[in-house]
Amino acid sequence: MRMPGRGVLAVLGLVWMTATGCLTGRRAATATLPAREPMELLGEVEAREAEWSTLGLRLESTASAMGKAGTFTLNVRMAKDSVIWMSISPALGVEAARVLMTPDSVQVLSKLPGSRFVFQGNYAMLEEAVQAPVNFEIMQDLLLGRPLMLDAERDEYTSQVDGDQYVLMSKYNRNVRKLVGTDDKELAPDDSLSIVAKDKKAERLIEKAEKKAEKKDEMSEDLLVRRYWLDGKTYDPVQDVIDDLLRSRTVRVERSDFDDTDLGRMPARVRMTAKGPEGLFDALIYTKRRRTGRAYDFPFAIPEDFERRTEL
Length: 312
Known about the structure:
Elements: H1 9-15, H2 38-47, E1 54-65, E2 68-79, E3 83-90, E4 97-102, E5 105-112, E6 115-121, H3 123-130, H4 136-144, E7 157-162, E8 165-170, H5 174-180, H6 199-216, E9 224-231, E10 237-244, E11 249-261, E12 264-276, E13 279-292, E14 307-309
């Protein structure tokens, strides 16, 4: 993957990077909770989603990737299911970038000296830049502290007890079983995944997934395995692990310090750790302020002298 410039590192860091691993031994865990069916757990997650129209957030993030590190302040404004607006500033407080997302478009305005440009495109272009599934819904859920890519209508899940937490795991499709050489029923919650299929067989399966994605003009989700940890008492979504077998990566999102808010229980601290072919990514995001129900505008004026780009 061609790495983006330093000016958009903070933006891409909020989207995600990825990590990889190999199939490891299972961690022994003592079950302390009664077993629950996947649909029951999905119902608990859905029941905790509050109604809202607009939301303002002030976040602080410290992130490092490929030997570069920085601390950022992010002011975020959101209108439910329609707009996400972000203003990103480094520690000195001068705005470095602005982002405007709608369900079908992405705009990034970089104001850094020597890197003053505007990117205007769609999520397929953003996915190409970060080489990971990204869309408006994923970004909205990330900012709200919700499980990423958890879809009870589209996917089937199994459930397990892992100590004092429940785990929801997406069921494998046939191609995933062929690639990893094990069935989803044999997967323990903390096992990591890697491709064990022979080279030619793996290449055929991956090529098939890539062609399917090209036909839809989006990243393939056929070779994604998703796992979600829920607190056994509160059902807070404490951890997501998403394995991307197509690109040998995994994203891990850990949430903690949940608060009771107007939107229900939300995490005050989110950690994203990743290690993939491109290197290491590590970020801590703290929520400093939340405001709901306010009328917001979403300014995004583009200076005439800014370079226009069609890729990041």
